[in-house]
Amino acid sequence: MTTPLRRRQVLGLGFAALGTAVAAPAVWNRLQRSASSLRPATLASRGGVAELELLAQSSRSTIPGGPAELLTYNGRSPGPLLEVKAGDQVRLRLRNGLNQPTNLHFHGLHIPPTGTGDNVFLTVPPGGSTEYAFRLAKDHPAGLFYVHPHQHGLSADQVFGGLGSALVVRGDLDRIPEVAAAHESVLVLKDYASSGGQDAAMGVGRMLGREGRLLTVNGEINPELPIPSGGLLRLRLLNASNARIYRLALEGHPLVLIATDGGAIGTPEPLKELVLAPGERADVLVQGNQTPGSYRLLNLPYRRSGHMGMGAAEERPRTLATLRYAGAVAPLPLPQTLIPVAALPAPERTRRFVLAHAMGMGGMGGMNHAMGGMGGGGMGMGFQINGQAFEPDRINTRVQLGSTEDWLIVNDDVMDHPFHLHVNPFQVITRGGRPESQRRWKDTVLVKAGEEVRLRVTFRDFPGRTVYHCHNLDHEDMGLMGVLQIEERGV
Ligand code: C2O
Ligand code: CU
Ligand code: CU
């Protein structure tokens, strides 16, 4: 069912580089890199086992107008699509061909945060490799997840540089007949610095979180999304950008939401616009019931700061992709219902997390690297949760395994912060005091400047140490992260 978008631009560049090359070392390097860009675009599990390998390395850019070099998995940015099933045993070898440490995070998966699981405290040194291994529960929700580096202090550089892969877990939602009948495309939304390198000069630096001016879908500029008249298109959207918040709209068509970060919702919900912060995913159906033609998938202006003059939105809509009618089929209906999202138990306690930034001279853990690009005569800026910047060895929050809590996320800042929790999905209970329209499984929620969001989470199955943080990865690297210890009761 998965339809890869056209790859002509990507492959075209790879072949052009071959020329009449002789194997001089530099040319040989290039040959190897070109060859690696031809590795499969999808890596899938077979017979209940996923044996996957990702090689992180710097590669010549495949993006027209993009930076000269990109950070790639297996020669690709975004990396190959990974596809597994609920119940699968997953073994993923990460080989580090970068000149700096890296690691992996399995964003949104409900797996242990310890050992060879979703352990973001592991580090793979340059030239090293490690194997992540875990089993997905048989009842793991189907959905779109995200594999990306989580090396503190370097996460933003590495993701902005190009690293990240979408991860599809097949399961319950995929078996709903109307959903199964839809044509499916995974769309990885990622922005890149443009080759001119003016991005830094555009006031889109680390404090706001770096945005690139080149907007791509699966590493392509304005790809085509074919739809037959009468057909259903399932768009699985991942915001794999470092800091850009998308505001999506499709000309002439509602986006019918069927799943959020952590899986299906109860009832399809047609949306005129869809805001997607870094790390968030949305699964939408598009019905091919309009006059055949071309319709643009747009990114509408979004202002990510309430502060005057900061984070000013681009003032015009940008085209991300184009829906194009081709052929016709007997009209396919939308599903009426999906998968119920059960209410979580009443919370045993409520905690408050205040997100803010602080300016000052030093004294902010892990700031020096991140501040490199900011200048400012020794002044530093850091981000904090409840007055504390991230320290890998300090546990900020201890919770009991099996307990349910409400977390009140208070954005006391002039910038928006997408708040993200590892390992356990949550439900948003209220936003600015107002209840959500329906229950959804989330792991990342946009908390706008000055806003408060109440979320509810049950810490199920897996004890251990993990993190919560802002998914504007520049903010994360500058300290907007806390350590969570999930403790077994009575220990
Ligand atoms: Cu996708 Cu800790 O992040
Ligand atoms: Cu995550
Ligand atoms: Cu932030």
The number of helical elements comes to 6
Shape: globular
Could you name the CATH homologous superfamily of the largest domain? Cupredoxins -  blue copper proteins
Kindly give the count of domains: 3
Radius of gyration: 22 Å
Strands across the major sheet, in which order?
Answer: 11-10-13-18-15-16
Shape-level CATH architecture of the largest domain: Sandwich
Percent helix: under 10%
Content-based structural category: mainly beta
Number of strands: 31
N-end to C-end Cα span: 48 Å
What's the overall average pLDDT, rounded? 87
The biggest beta sheet reads:
6 strands, mixed
Q: Classify the beta-strand content into a percent band.
A: 35-45%
What does this protein look like?
The chain is mostly beta strands and 491 residues long. It has three domains: 166 residues, Cupredoxins -  blue copper proteins (Immunoglobulin-like); 129 residues, Immunoglobulin-like (Sandwich), CATH 2.60.40; 139 residues, Cupredoxins -  blue copper proteins (Immunoglobulin-like, Sandwich), CATH 2.60.40.420. The chain contains six helices and 31 strands. The chain has a six-stranded mixed β-sheet with strand order 11-10-13-18-15-16. It is globular and about 60 Å long. The chain starts with 7 loop residues before the first helix and ends with a strand. The N terminus is likely disordered. Bound molecules: CU-O-CU linkage (C2O) and copper (II) ion (2 copies).
